[in-house]
Amino acid sequence: MDAIKFVHEQLTQKKTFPDFKAGDNITVNYKIIEGVKERIQAFRGDVIQKKGHGETATFTVRKIASGIGVDRVFPFYSPNIDSIEVNKKGKVRRARIYYLRELKGKKARIKEKMILTGDAAK
Amino acid sequence: MKGILGKKVGMTSIFDQQGKQVACTVIEAGPCVVTQVKTVAIDGYNALQLGFDPKKEKSTTKPMKGHFAKASTAPLRKVVEFRDCELDKKLGETVTSEIFTEGEVVNVIGKTKGKGFQGVVKRHGFHGVGGRTHGQHDRNRAPGSLGGSSYPARVFKGMRMAGRMGGDRVKVQNLTVVKIFPEQNLIVVHGNVPGAKGSYLIIENAK
């Protein structure tokens, strides 16, 4: 197992990401390579799950694109992820909110988590 | 032909140049010791015998102790012969993972995981009966008919049936070497190789 750890230390780029979890609304800026050209495409949606651990961990983002639900799986350590932004913190009770796939319209909303900051936090 | 002995460490995935995630296997390859050099003059054919993975002196038989003493090496667990080996090594010399280069194509030989006594669905990919209805109730994974009745009045040889599965010697061909770490004796290859973690492997160059 240590040998696998060593291989990742050598071959996988170190990265830092903002802290997010299931229910949060995030934007993933993903590099698209077309021939020699490279451009950045944003994928904004709700995080459905975080899966795995270490260098092979992934997360799934779901959004509604022109009326059709789209789930997209991103590996955390993919070199094609340019940046991740957290737009909203969601208030959910599960670590994997698969039930969102069955919901439509108003039901498919996630309540925003209120976070106390400044003096109120004390 | 050139080759080396190794041990499967495990699988993981890494990102290639295009940023694509690819599955790969980490193999602890070598260092191996040349325990015997066979020549046409003495043995009738050319071969290099390599040993890998040291073991205790007390768990070695006397004849094998003598064999390893000739190569002046510690007793080794796995000893394998490589026919017509192109490596220019003498008795007692070590073979490391550096015989391969990154991007080279290799074949990996190993012993698959034993699956025990398995039915025809798992062992031969039969499709089973198909449904639970039409009067049948407990034959979902049965093989069905084994052949004709009055003619040929026997079951043909080689008819695929249930039995022991796994534990076979399997060669996986044309795996690309992604990375070599000579100091750690590690080789990373694309794709999967037979066997459980810690099982012995033979890595040879693909012809």
Written account of the structure:
- The complex is a heterodimer of chains A (122) and B (207).
- Chain A is built from one helix and five strands; from the N terminus they run αβββββ.
- Chain A starts with a helix and ends in a 34-residue tail after the last strand.
- In chain A, strand 3 and strand 4 form a beta hairpin.
- A five-stranded antiparallel sheet of chain A has the order 4-3-2-1-5, with no helix packed on it.
- Chain A is globular and about 45 Å long.
- By secondary structure, chain A is mostly beta strands.
- With 207 residues, chain B is mainly beta.
- Chain B has helices spanning 40-43, 62-70, 120-124; strands at 3-15, 21-29, 32-38, 47-54, 76-83, 94-95, 105-111, 116-118, 163-165, 169-181, 186-190, 200-205.
- The N and C termini of chain B lie close together (8 Å).
- The model of chain B has no long low-confidence stretch (mean pLDDT 90).
- The A-B interface holds A 1, 3-4, 6-8, 10-12, 31, 33, 55-56, 75, 77-80 and B 9-10, 12-15, 18-19, 21, 26, 28, 179, 181, 184, 186, 188.
